[in-house]
Amino acid sequence: MMVVGGLCAIIHGAASPLMLLVYSSMTNTFVSYEIEVQALKDENRTCNNNTIYWKNGSIYETAENSSVYCGVDIEAEMTMFAYYYVGIGLGVMFVSYFQIFFWMSAAARQIDKMRKAYFRKVMQMEIGWFDCNSVGELNTRMSDDINKVNNAIADQVSIFIERISTFVFGFMVGFIGGWKLTLVVISVSPLIGIAAALMAMAVARLTGRELTSYAKAGAVAEEVLSSIRTVAAFGGEEKETERYDRNLAEAQIWGVKKGTIVGVFQGYMWCIVLLCFALAFWYGSKLVIDTKELSPGALIQVFFGVLMAAINLGQASPCLETFVCGCAAAKNIFDTLDREPEIDCFSKEGHKLDKVKGDIEFHNVTFYYPSRPEVKILNDLSMQIKAGETTAFVGPSGSGKSTTIQLLQRFYDPKEGMVTLDGHDIRTLNIQWLRSLIGIVEQEPTLFATTIADNIQFGRPGVTMEDIIQATKEANAYDFIMDLPQTFHTLVGEGGGQLSGGQKQRIAIARALIRNPRILLLDMATSALDNESEAVVQKALDKVCMGRTTISIAHRLSTIRNADVIIGFDHGRAVERGTQSELIERQGVFFTLVTLQNQGTSNTAKDENRDALEEDFDLKVRSRTSSKRGSCRLRSQSKLSNGTLSGSLTILSDNHFTTENTCEDDADEHVEPAPVQRILKYNQPEWPYMLLGSVGAAFNGSVNPIYAILFSQILGTFAISDLNEQTKQINDMCILFCIVAVISFFSHFLQGYAFAKSGELLTRRLRKLGFQAMLRQEIGWFDDPQNSPGALTTRLATDASMVKGATGSQIGMIVSSLTSIGASFIIAIYFSWKLTLVILCFLPLIGLCGVFQAKMLTGFANEDNKAMEAAGQVSSEALANIRTIAGLAKESSFVESYEQKLVLPFQFERKRANIYGLCFGFSQCVIFMAYAASFRYGGHLVMSEGLHYMIVFRVITAVVTSGTALGKASSFTPDYAKAKIAAARLFKLLDRVPKINISHADGEKWDDFRGKIEFLNCNFTYPTRPDVQVLNGLVVSVKPGQTLAFVGNSGCGKSTSVQLLERFYDPDEGRVLIDGRPSHTVNVPFLRSQIGIVSQEPVLFGCSIAENIQYGDNTCSVSMEAIVEAAKKAYLHDFVMTLPDKYETQVGAQGSQLSRGQKQRIAIARAIVRNPKVLLLDEATSALDTESEQIVQSALDEARKGRTCITIAHRLSTIQNADIIAVMSTGVVIEQDTHDNLMAKRGAYYKLVTTGAPTS
Fold it and tell me: Which parts of the chain span the membrane according to its record (predicted)?
């Protein structure tokens, strides 16, 4: 395809030089006709036998003693030329269609392949590579960089070939016409060539730098949008906008430099070209007049041949710019494609053992993370894990327990030593097979944004629904899933955000169980669960561990009571090994943990006879809540339709849940393009720049009409009989050309610089505003899958830079095109209105082509973006959860899903190639037709009305150049239309009024904030799941300085109530009162500034430890003393001092370089720095081992003093000294009092403490 397309382009390129041959003989015809007319003005001469005679019969001779030819039949000649033109025109139309169609189709295929290969390669990389490359940057690579490559290899190549071919043929025509003049003109060309090369180099370097800055900004945006709750809770919106803006500022500087350089070079090129005109006309006229080597037509032929060649070479240079941009972008992509992953998960190599016993051994393993080579995590670790036994790892946070699991999954390879399975080094085993033997349940499980059933199926492809139900029953998840309106078809949201921690955990366990693994890795699998679920899940896990090799990492000793072997870790070594009783005797690591934990357990009556009680209570509560659940479910269904009651799994409620989204969706599909006035309004501060730029542009536009006048004037001189007059006129013209050349240089520079500056400032402003607007939205907005972090970052990146298409350099183009058109028309109509009207008939056609082309392209732009966004979501989710995917060995299914999402964009591209080709072909041939008609009619006017041929040339040149200017203006219409749509999308975001206003001005503030909090009859459902009632008339209050603890099974609405207090959401009914004032009347930033939060899975940002702690107070800059003070209170200081960079240590993306306990303590320090009046602890210690937990717990007790505190806990030992304990079930409080009173009541709480029995 590319070869045929290339051939067509070459033929198309040859058409214009061919036309010159016609043009030159036509010029000669005109000149000889004019000379004849001049000669016959004298009454005494007549025309006879094609020669002019005096009346007396002697031959009339000119001053140079030559006879004069006569009898030119101008009309017949012109008709002949018109046919030539039409023929060439039709050929061009045919060829140029194929040239575009073939190249664009080929490019679409290649880009499709490249996208697939790149994503596949990234999914193939080992985990260590992801530690060193941020997900945001990879996403930017996949969207922006590949688009740049696409621009470089699609229609641009064919246009490039066409221009080069015109260049070659132009020179050939020149040499045929007259070699001397050709050589003179060529001597100037190197100046242009060198400039073009320099420009391309400079632009490529600057583009590279600009891209890097934008990728950084993209990474910031991705990070912030993924952790939007943390940003909102700590009021970091402004700080994040600043951080984003800093990266944009850097990109802006490079962008302005790029624009200026382009301006300077363009000015230089025009200057040279115009000077070259002067030289050529001056020398050419010498050849025509003095030595008679050339006819006037040959002068035109040579001059235009070389000029056309030079101009096309010049026009080929923007193509080079696109190529260079494309190459720079492709380099990043090919670097990744060429990199061999150290651990290739798609590799077919390696053994698969016939029988796996499951003996695992670590031999002197030393390891550090590739992104932090200076910190040794494992230090000469040796241990063995016997097949079929349950081995527990215990030890303080950061001692290397989780790392061993990652080595066993082959996420990393050890730096020294080896890990063996049944005596085989795992590096020699097939990696997919090895991972298929392993089931893993992590502490912070990652779910994918699809249904519950699909999430479980990720464990093992092709399982039946029975298997899934069986696995969920084993993982104690079946009951809660069946309580959801859509049971297994419930969507879990981005990262599983629609489910509670315990629910996510149980689905993750079901996912591990369905694999039927030989080796089960439990990385604190039950830490996120409440007592009740933990007891049941623990039972499930114990059942599952039978006959499997199991490694369990635990901080709660209750979870490892029945482990066969316990291995104690300290500083990356296995320091002890044995059964529980042996290790207690040794008094080592394990012993300290046990003693620490036992101090925490209160001396509650544990061994009362409780069976009868348990069952009795269980039944009562169960029946009560299930009837309540049932009525709630019935209510939500009757709202929908009776269809759901048939009991079949209709997805009605699913439609119900997406109705509001689909309305929004449609709104998004057909965005009304934004009015230009509004886009320009954002560019207001730059009006001086735009004014200057427009002045430059206006002059640049008038160069063409000025040229038309000068050029036709020179042609006209050839018919003057007086030689001296001739020479004088020509010299004058040449001087004028020189003057225009110099001014042109400065005006181009002005236009380039001024518009680059205003355009870049606008892009930066819009990106910043867009980002600010996103951070302004309420949290519920981010729950909508359309606004996933991946989709939002893509939108930020593409929309803002597209808006440049309506301002900036585009305005320059439009201004210069308009001046050009205006001036040309005035000239044309002034000299000959009849001829102008004839040519005008063709202009609408040229214009229409441009408009039509624009319409088609924008039509596609919309669909294209939509389709690519879907693929972007897949890639974004895959890269964000790469560890989970690798653990499940599911890379290939994500690659498949991504490839499926690419089918649509690919089809669009093919369709687009067709239509673009047709328009292009048509618009290319119109110009030839216009020439045919106008010269034919011009001949008629010269003949019948005695119009001077000079004027025919002047009018035609003027109108045609203005036509090309019109064409140029219309070729920007695609950009322009894209810009309007992108702007509309952006404005839609800017205009959206968030349901919860976070401005500093709205709402009330007061000085003596005390921290009294009351929930009155709160009902609440999440906006994306309106049919699941989460809070059901919640009533609870806490006085200033008291501690309120929520307990209850997971999913009963504990964390939701905290989110209402933070005003991430507002209750559907009922009120939250703060110091007696309804929460929705309180100023949001003020309210949040009084609240410190420590959540179960703390979100850290990819910066230093100190900066993460400073994040606690974004109103002022936090001093180092305050940071250290807070770190000491959070028991973090000593650990930080052991790191090489102390507080400047980078924590990695989302804190991935730290252990969970370390992240948790940073989060606590961050909350303490705030010095809040209200402290929210959402399972703040569940992720810690016993030793850290003790210390963090005392740090929290310290932090609670004098503050209102709301804690959510599953481990009841942590809340025994709370002032009020509220037991929740299905969104209501079923009992509340102090610990002792509740124990005395022997109600739901008593059951929880003594047995971990259900509260539902």
Answer: 82-106, 157-177, 183-204, 261-282, 294-313, 687-710, 730-756, 811-831, 837-858, 915-934, 946-966
